[in-house]
């Protein structure tokens, strides 16, 4: 399982993960949506040589995954762990990924852009994630000429990524703001200052398990450090708001909260059939209970792992079989019982 899911990072009671992603393109090649397979293969070799062949320290740290050579279940498994993107899967005939063994760094090739460098860490670690992504980016740029213009910055397939090409996002667990009815105000305020708020798998996805992704939308006319600083400031404010909401729940609605937490715990430990949305909600309740000291339980790492493992692709990968939706619901409940003991 990915290191960012197994380990606990700073502010882990609220911040699940930090992600920094860089979008880059190579001079002399068309963008991937008009790239033929021959040129795509040539570009792939250039990128891989710049990362692996050109740097002995990285040779044993990355696995090479070609999307066309793996099953749809395996593709979903990588997607649900945030190691590849929907665009890379859609471009499976030309798309590839270099993923390090800890599953904290992935380099996507022939996605929406030629190269997407991504770093994913547990908790709130914006500067560290940026440093790791930038180091990989610098290694690639030693061997490759990026498409870059002085006035516009890095050229990208989508104009919204022009400039720095940097997207910084944090995934937040905000159950108390949701339960107290204050979440909409937080989301509205984030949007008003130019940040995007999305579900767990990006634009158009649901806010399952009270999980929210906050990210920058502007990449042009702003520096990388300004982007990181903006996200950091907003995240710390949301953390403060969530902790305040949790404190109010604990002091003013304790019995109601305890009933919700222990009822959820009982269902997870005993249910025989479980949908994904129900499982995500119940796991969220238990995590809140642990964070507030209502449950004496040290299984936060297991609950974080379960958040990924109960997704359709990861679940089928875990049991090494293709499962219908109804069979997934049965296996999901079984896996949860096994992991919670």
From TrEMBL:
Listed PROSITE patterns: PHOSPHAGEN_KINASE (PS00112), PHOSPHAGEN_KINASE_C (PS51510)
Catalytic activity: L-arginyl-[protein] + ATP = N(omega)-phospho-L-arginyl-[protein] + ADP + H(+)
Domain Phosphagen kinase C-terminal: 14-245
Protein EC: 2.7.14.1
Cited function: Catalyzes the specific phosphorylation of arginine residues in proteins.
HAMAP family for the chain: Prot_Arg_kinase
Protein name from the UniProt record: Protein-arginine kinase
Organism: Serpentinicella alkaliphila
Underlying gene: mcsB
């Amino acid at each position: 399982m990915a290191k960012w899911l197994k380990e606990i990072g700073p502010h882990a009671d609220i911040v699940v993960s930090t992600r920094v992603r860089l979008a880059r393109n190579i001079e002399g090649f068309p963008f991937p949506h008009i790239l033929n397979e021959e040129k795509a293969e040539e570009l792939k070799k250039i990128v891989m040589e710049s990362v692996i062949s050109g740097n002995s320290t990285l040779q044993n740290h990355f696995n090479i995954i070609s999307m066309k050579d793996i099953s749809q279940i395996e593709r979903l498994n990588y997607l649900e762990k945030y190691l590849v993107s929907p665009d890379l899967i859609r471009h499976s005939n030309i798309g590839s990924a270099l993923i390090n063994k800890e599953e904290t760094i992935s380099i996507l090739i022939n996605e929406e852009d030629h190269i997407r460098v991504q770093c994913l860490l547990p908790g709130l670690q914006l500067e560290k994630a940026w440093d790791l992504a930038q180091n990989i980016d610098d290694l690639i740029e030693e061997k490759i000429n990026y498409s870059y213009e002085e006035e516009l910055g890095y050229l990208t397939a989508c104009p919204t990524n022009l400039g720095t090409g940097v997207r910084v996002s944090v995934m937040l667990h905000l159950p108390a703001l949701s339960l107290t009815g204050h979440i909409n105000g937080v989301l509205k305020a984030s949007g008003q200052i130019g940040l995007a708020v999305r579900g767990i798998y990006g634009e158009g996805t649901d806010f399952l398990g009270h999980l929210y992704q906050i990210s920058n939308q502007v990449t042009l006319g702003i520096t990388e450090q300004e982007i990181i600083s903006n996200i950091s400031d907003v995240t710390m404010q949301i953390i403060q708001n969530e902790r305040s909401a949790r404190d109010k729940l604990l002091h003013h609605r304790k019995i109601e909260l305890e009933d919700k937490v222990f009822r959820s715990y009982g269902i997870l430990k005993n249910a025989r059939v479980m949908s994904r949305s129900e499982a995500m909600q119940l796991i969220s309740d238990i995590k809140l209970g642990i964070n507030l000291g209502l449950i004496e339980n040290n299984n936060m790492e297991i609950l974080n792992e379960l958040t990924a493992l109960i997704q359709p692709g990861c679940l089928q990968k875990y049991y090494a079989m293709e499962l219908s939706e109804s069979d997934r619901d049965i296996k999901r409940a079984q896996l949860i019982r096994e992991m919670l003991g």
